[in-house]
User: What shape does this take?
Amino acid sequence: MQKSKPTETGKCNCGRRLKDATVFIYRSHTDRYLFHRCECGTEWTEHQTDIDPMDPVSSDEVIEVHKRLAKFEGSIAELLERRPA
Ligand SMILES: [Zn+2]
Assistant: This one.
């Protein structure tokens, strides 16, 4: 059985749901990167382009990211350094 990307199957290869993975969002004007980290240690990045620049980030989404950041124990510093100034 061929392994599929979590973004295609909705589940990590370990079986955990995609929505349970820790997610960090990096946005620029035209691109959006979603960094995912599953509890099993699997990490993957989703790159989205052609997003609507007028599409706002929902406050719920921001809150969720901060909640997950608060309990994240990985190398978050490296990710944070890649945020736009
Ligand atoms: Zn996993």
Notes: The chain has three helices and three strands. The two ends are 43 Å apart (CA to CA). The longest helix spans residues 59-70. Residues 12, 14, 16, 38, 40, 42 surround zinc ion (CB under 6 Å).
